[in-house]
Amino acid sequence: MPAVDDTPPPSLALINGRELTVSPGETILQAARRLGIDIPTLCHHDRLSPEGGCRMCVVKCAGHPRPLAACHTPLEPGMEILTHHREVERIRKTLLTLQLTTAGESGLEPGVIREGRFTELLVSHGFSLPRRTAPPVKTDTSHPYLRWQPSACVSCRLCLNTCEQIAGHFVFGMEKLGAASRLTIDGKAGFNGDACSSCGACVDVCPTGAITDRDREKLKNRRETNPAPPVETVCGYCGTGCRMIVHTDKRGDVGHINGVPNAAVNHGDLCVKGRFAHGWHHAFDRLRRPMKRSGAAFSAVSWDQATALVAARFQEIAASSGPDSIAALASGRTSNEAAYLMQKFMRGVIGTNNIDSCSRLCHSASELALSWMLGSGSASACFDDIELAGCLLVFGTNPTESHPILGARLKQAALHGVPLIVVDPRRTDLSDFATLHLPVKPGTNVSLINILCRLVLEAYGETTAAQAGAHGLEFEAWRDFVLSLPVPEASAITGVQERDLRLAARIIADSAPLLTLYGAGVTQHVRGTAGVIALANLALLTGGLGQPGGGLLPLRGQNNVQGVSDMGAMPDHFTGYQPIRSAGTGTRVAETLGFHLPGKAGLTVTELPDAILAGNVRALWVMGENPLRSLPDTAKTRRAFEKLEFLVVQETILTETGKLAHVLLPAAAGFEIEGTFTNAERRIQRVRPAVEAPGEARPDWIIISQVARACGAHWNYLGPGDVMREVGRATPETHGGISYQRLEQSPDGLQWPCPDPAHPGTKRLHSGGFAPGKGRFVPIDYEPSPAHHQQDYPILLITGRVLEHHNSGGMTLRTPNQDLPTAQGLALHPHDAARLLLVDGDEATVESAQGSLRVRVRISNRQLPGTAFLSIHDGSRPANRLVSALPDPDSMTPQYKAVAVKISR
Amino acid sequence: MFSEGSHLPPPVHYWQDHRGLGSPLAVISRHVRKHSLPLPDRAVAELAARTGLLDSTIRRAADYYRSMAAREDHPPLMVCQGTACRLAGSGKLRDALEKRKLTCHGVACLGYCDAAPALLDERDAAYTGEAASEFHEHRGFSQSILGHPLPRMESLSATPLILPRLLQGGAATLKEALSMGVYEGLRSALQQPGQVMLDLVAASGLSGSQGRVAPRWQTCAATDAVDRYVIGHAHAGTSGAVVDRLLLERDPHSVLEGLALAARAVGASHGILFIPADYPQALQQTEAAIREATAANLLGRKILKSHWSFQVSLFPGAARCAGGEATALIDAIETLRGQARPQPPAPEVAGLHRLPTLVEPLETLVQLGTLAKDGSAAWTAQGTAECPGTRVFCLNQGFAHPGLVEVPHGHNLRDLIENWAGGGAMGSPLEALILGGLGGSLLGPGEWDLTLCPSRMTASGLRLGNGSLVAIAQTADHRDVLSHFLEYMDGESCGKCTPCRLGPAGVVTLAARYERLARVDRKPRDATRARRDLETLFHTMELGSLCSFGQDLPGPMRRFIDLFWDRIFTKTS
């Protein structure tokens, strides 16, 4: 048959008469969008697999007897599509009529639909917005944040699919059939049940407002949306660094929060803390004015008086007993700029290296071990590697609770078939989705990793093993060492069955590249540095470092705890991890910044209490930290802090530490400042003020500059951007190309190293090889933890976070998060509980060599027998009272993850 | 079959028999039948210990079987509401029983269409015909206890391919089955590569209700995947599934052999039998058969000392599942929700757990044993050129001589009705036939000169469906038949797509409006508009629905309304 002129050639198709090339796998909907043609949809979402339920997207296709659903039908060559043909328009109208007239049975009460996607569809199809015909079912407000109005539900299942395909929580279900089918929320339990993590992803997608939240409801009722444009900033909770949009209300307070769609880190998703726990910004007990101690109470003073007092006392103490009698703590919560200025103040103005931060309490071991072995102490990989990995090893971290967005990404990767190995003494949520869960005994990580290395080596053939040897120096010595380790012994030490160890090694060996994500479960041990060294050995052996989908990804706990170390808030390193002791650093500082770097390394935060008690440190400036809660051995820490002659606490709220201060400086909080945060994958992102700081509270960088000026320094920064420029000058190798101008242009930020303004940033370290002389295998042997085999204290206590709260709880406990059902209390295995004659809900005493606590017992078979778990957030029962001050001798990180305790009724 | 060198342990699914204790879901469904929901924590823990499943899975599964759950720990009577039973007055029967304070559950179909109405008592014993109609008198004297009689069965083909063993009285035990030559086909197929079986299926022209099966099987076998599944479903869903019930109760080993051979042909390592949970006896027989066959190494690991392993799991389906739509079956197994999924991808490309999956009715499967043993000659010798082989039709009690009949494809429908079945029961003339279930074809008397061949019927816009034939007599309550259509669609729609979920309710609204307007008779123009709206609605349901269930049902329903408009809307009684 001769070709007719007007039939399109094979690879072309027509939509509404416009020609386009067919790309394989593309749906009609996607193709139409390419042409700017809008096909109406109700149940479709780009990030979900096509649902095909609402049928609003039906389109006419020439030659097909029935219309095609655009959302799930691939566009094929030769198709002639009409998106708004009379026939399909009639179907769409009939469908909307059905929803409005007959859906009463399935729950829809037309009058309660919110303005949104569904009402837009009604209007665009010529329906007038329906009025309420009957009083709607009362909105379910039993959850602190989420609201459920069943009579506005159109059964589109966007919530269900989002919950399953993105958040990974499986909260929703459908009950009954036909017109009677209804959405169920965790069976009958609702959002307050165990399944829901309150992330609010369902709120974002609900087209009718059947599921909404407290914040939106409030704004709706008061009609108080602020006409000012919403502000894009970065979350101030964990180290994931989710980008968010903060909408304000008419009073200028935080109204509601969304994720930034298409953000590189979170793709528009947020967790319960990021989305909802913002109320603390407007808490009544925020610090509003500078205050000075007079006797037992505080009295308000002016900023000038406060800064003058701080400057005078510091100068006085430095003059009488030397600059090293003053110390400061920067924080992982403040901006990079504040952290930089704080260390510059201590080094350049006071003249001491006594500057440290909370990074010491979590990932110093990583910084130390990784820079020693690989040449850089930061994450080699990036979050995008999660989806690219051949095998995921999640070691000593519970990301679904402590880094929920990463947890969700990991869960989806596992559900899509990426082998996942979870190593954790607890059966975490993620381990239920894992290919293999290795319940390791706390404090035996090194043995476990070493034996995995041995078994992986054995699983490799000879050629692969030889190739692996080329990944690093000193391979032979290390290989001989790990091959000498007996498997049964490791199995006995770690409590993991030999069969599981071998299976894990097979999985790792067969599915390269290996991406290792690890957390404080590795570093917060006396052998924490050794643990990281062992993990780095495994990473070198499997060869994924610097490759897409491979490498090491230490998960950082706070929004900017990466940045505070990058900025040099460490007693032995200047910015960009330049060692103090190296002569080059001193010369560069003198040349570019014009001050002399003190030569003697300073004190770490862990050493601070002893130094104070010994009289070596007399004054302390604490910025954004609460050491009385975060340091181990609370009793000793309190004794030390009470002994201080001069304590300055710069904070947003009055903390336990703040109560001991001599001067309180009110600081602006996360949504009130301008600056940058660096997340766990080295991504520097812009932070912008969305609301005003309360009272006279000021951003940290301004406070430090003022104190510096009062001390006589000539600091004249025009803004935080100015500070970042100076960081670039001081650290050209990593931050040379970072400027606020560039950060404005690339909203997803830049990943350092970024040495010059044309550099695109570095997604993965080591992709071009290791620094000279680095990339070496280090044999490191297991040693028992001091918490093991203590006859008087037979149970190993793990301390850590729960989803709903953050660190010492200063932020989250000032929000409705405190009303969320939380797994608080001491989790204990049923066997241990039975032995101790404890039942669920009993009060029990936990006692360690350091102190004791009364806590409520929660029985959970997610614990290993012989271990217990206690969350760290409850201020009235500070878990750290039990923790020993004995740190890892290399990283000076205390052992929070294995505390020998005894439990009694 | 996992590819060599793959180290990952194959995932163990909750529906899988992994402790050698039989189907974990059968345990749960039986428990739910005897106990009220929600299950107390203790019962959940007990079931969890017995089945090795998580507590949350037990709760979800129990919820899936809620339609058969006991009330106050008293199992309800299961009263069949299939089309045949409905025409035999099971709707009224149910009301009457409820009046006597007996709890009743309506069931899609119990598989006794030839002896309607039917019900199951508290102990799952079946009562049919008069015994069911007067249940209160016959209570405790079920025919199934006394030995339920087999329906009238006959083959109009010289070599029956589906019913041969049933015609000889069935082969429920392995011993009987072996004596009738079951598993000989499997034995010979194991000597040859799977491709030989696939070629045999293609050569025989084996056909289901959609025409030849071979193209789908070839796609399934050719798709690149680590593993495949075969699902045999006895869930025609719509009424008329008598043959499925009988095959499972009396010829389960042929079904198992067929499942294994289908798996062999496409390269699957796992088979699932999807059996409605309201076929309690069929479930029990099949479970026993799987146990026997596994013990005799006819199923399981390294079958008959070959290198081929094949495991069969039983999935008791909660009664309703979009009329047995393949994607809905798959979704039921995967998520316990039973919702249709968009196609493409077709199940044979990406089905259960995204692996290529064959979904075949039992009638197709039971033919495979003979095919493997004796070759394809018996198929090519009968039937039509498009669809060789035979087909079983089940004629309901509305005919003078109801029963099961196996005929070669291409047989004339009128001959079947008039000569084999002797026309309407008690001499009452027939007004219409429902062929192949409610989603099949509604045939007026002028349309009975029909060649019963799936391919030819599809070409003329008709559907053979599950091969059931239901007679609608002059005396039928047409209004009740229409409500039956609507209730069936509403009760079986998975609820995923709007037209199918809300369409039946829309029809009810419009019909009521029409009736009101027509009766008042003041606004004929509005009445016409209501009728036109009804037409638009059917059109939307037919064209807009996601799966074949929603697409197929409106046709016969609309035809029924067109044929009997006056009888439905002007009935005065």
Describe the fold and architecture:
The complex is a heterodimer of chains A (905) and B (573). Helices cover 31% and strands 16% of the residues of chain A. The relative contact order of chain A is 0.11. Chain A starts with 11 loop residues before the first strand and ends with a strand. In chain A, helix 9 (336-350) packs parallel to helix 27 and helix 11 (364-374) packs across helix 21. Chain A is built from 31 helices and 35 strands. With 905 residues, chain A is α/β, with parallel strands linked by helices. Chain A folds into five domains: 12-84, Ubiquitin-like (UB roll), CATH 3.10.20.740; 106-122 and 131-282, Alpha-Beta Plaits; 291-362 and 560-751, Rossmann fold, CATH 3.40.50.740; 365-554, Dimethylsulfoxide Reductase, domain 2 (3-Layer(aba) Sandwich); 795-904, Barwin-like endoglucanases (Beta Barrel). Chain A has a seven-stranded mixed sheet. Chain A is globular. In chain A, helix 9 (336-350) links the parallel strand 15 and strand 16 (355-357). Chain B folds into four domains: 77-146, 3-Layer(aba) Sandwich (Glutaredoxin); 153-380, Rossmann fold (3-Layer(aba) Sandwich), CATH 3.40.50.11540; 391-473, Roll (Ubiquitin-like (UB roll)), CATH 3.10.20.600; 478-569, de novo design (two linked rop proteins). Residues 1-7 of chain B have low confidence and may be disordered. Chain B has a six-stranded mixed sheet with strand order 5-13-12-16-14-15. Chain B has a four-stranded mixed sheet with strand order 2-1-3-4. Chain B starts with 23 loop residues before the first helix and ends with a helix. Chain B is of the alpha/beta class. The chains are: A alpha/beta (905), B alpha/beta (573). Chain A binds chain B through residues 50-55, 58, 66-67, 69, 71-74, 87, 90-91, 94-95, 97-99, 101-103, 105-106, 155, 157, 173-181, 187-188, 419, 435, 503, 506-507, 510, and chain B through 5, 7-9, 38, 59-60, 63, 320, 337, 339, 341-342, 344, 489-506, 509, 536-537, 539-540, 542-546, 551.
